[in-house]
Amino acid sequence: VTAVHDMHIHPRDQELIVGTHGRGIFIADISGLQALTSTTLAADAHLAPIVPTVQQVPGMRPVAASLNYNGQSRQPGVHINYYLKSAASNGVSVRVYDGARVIAEMPAAPGNAGLNTVRWTMQSARQMTEAEQAARGRGGRGGGGGGFGGGRGAGAATGPPQFPAAAANLVTATIPPGEYRVVLTVGGREYAQTAVVLGDVD
To answer: Would you say 15 and 28 are in contact if contact means Cβ atoms under 8 Å apart?
Structure first.
């Protein structure tokens, strides 16, 4: 049994940080839980404020120290939390806008009662043109790259469902840092928040 030495809630990142006497550190994203106020719980639906997210750039050197900590890191991407008072029988969608243009969409987002979370990979997605589809059919590359915001690696299949999903008829591209509008649609109503994507200072 590991005894907890100290706990702290990070005011900017909205994460619970726990330090133990066993020299362990545990960090949990509690931004969704912090949005569950009495007003939120009384509403039919609520899209929580979105914590600004750094668009991490992977290191150029494939060298790691032998004493790195072991553990599961937070999944990359923008985490979007929303609360539903009851299960959504008519479906839920989450869209991301750059100005007036939809750049990413999860048309069948989880519609469970309670707190739900989805993860935007900080990529835009669009339908392939006929020329791009023809080029892919001839063996051309056709599609866009996964990008460093795309949730690659061994942990990509775990955690909250992510979007845009990979599809043969989509071209994806990593978006630049900036502000994007996130819209939750449920029960014929829309709820909006701003997602801030920050550049990697390193």
So the answer is: yes
Q: If you write DSSP's letter for every residue of the chain in order, what string do you get?
A: -PPEEEEEEETTTTEEEEEETTS-EEEEE-HHHHT--HHHHHSSEEEPPPPPEEE----SS----TTPPPSPPPPSSEEEEEEESS--TT-EEEEEEETTEEEEEEEEE---SEEEEEEE-SEEEEEPPHHHHHHHHTT---SPP--TTS--SGGGGSSS-EESPP-TTEEEEEPPSEEEEEEEEETTEEEEEEEEEEEP--
CA atoms of 22 and 3, how far apart (whole Å): 7
Residue type at position 149: G
**What is the tens place of the pLDDT at every residue in 110-144?**
999 999 999 999 999 988 777 777 777 666 544 44
Q: Per-residue pLDDT tens for 22-53?
A: 777 888 888 888 888 999 999 999 999 999 99
The alpha carbon of residue 85 and the mean position of all alpha carbons in its chain are separated, in whole angstroms, by 22
Tokens representing 21 are 């006497």
What does pTM read for this prediction? 0.77
* Model pLDDT for residues 81-119, shown as the tens digit of each residue: 999 999 998 889 999 999 999 999 999 999 999 999 999
